[in-house]
Amino acid sequence: MQFEADIIKALQRLSNGFTDAVFLGISQLGTELLFLAVAVVLYWVIDKRYAYRFFNVYILGVAITNFIKLGVKRARPFNEYGNEVRSIGDPETTYSFPSGHTESIASVSTLLTIKYGKKHRSVPIVGVAATLAVMLSRMYLGQHYLTDVLCGLAVGIVCAVIFNALLSLFGDKEELFGIIGFVIAMALISVLGLLGQLNTPSGMDLLKGIGAFLAFDIGYVIEKYFVRYDVKQNRIWWKVIIRLVVGLGVAVGIQQGFKLFLPESIPMLYCFLRYFLLAAWVAIAAPALFKALKI
Questions:
Q1: Which one-letter DSSP state was computed for residue 242?
Q2: For the chain, where are the E strands, in sequence order?
């Protein structure tokens, strides 16, 4: 809609080297790297059971967002209004509606608020501020319309609330929720395959989420019943630092390094397998290593 393009044009009048850098940095709060950092701190340091909930709710929200993108197929503002709106930074290649960055930060903020908001009043305040900042940044950068970020906000909050409530029903058998997630994941892959959408950018993003989801849920069950790494007994500060440095180093190495030799033309390897291995490291291999090294 023209009025949405006008909003972006108004924001981009503020564009200069400094504001561009600021909004590009803020936009990173809506990427998978922030989610990964929060998830591993929860899983390796604070509370494995809640980390399982956090991971599953987030991944399912991302999957639903990308599925909506494939259904709506809305062009990006810099494509639709190329003479009026420009892409600041690298142009996104997926569809525009809804905003995945907004969904991501809204989901993370909602989940952390539900868990820690009552004890730590700063959590919802920071969450709201970060979410609004990401929404504004996505429009300023020319990547999304107002309705994109509003829908991303709604999807993130709704998915976080609903899936979090569903997981609560399973009590201490939370891993059984993985069965529901598995059914959803297989259904999404089947639909994408039938529609010939697996090779599209949004389809590839969906494969990343499904690969990570399956590996983490399988790894969590193995870790819970066989490895049993106790994070509460290993919260000595220097042990925590070693775990995070080593663990995150390997995780980023898998996420980025495997790009160098896995063929991008084969989504099941480049997307699904890479994120399957990443999540397997986080869920089972890293805790097993930490336990063996007594860190």
A1: H
A2: none
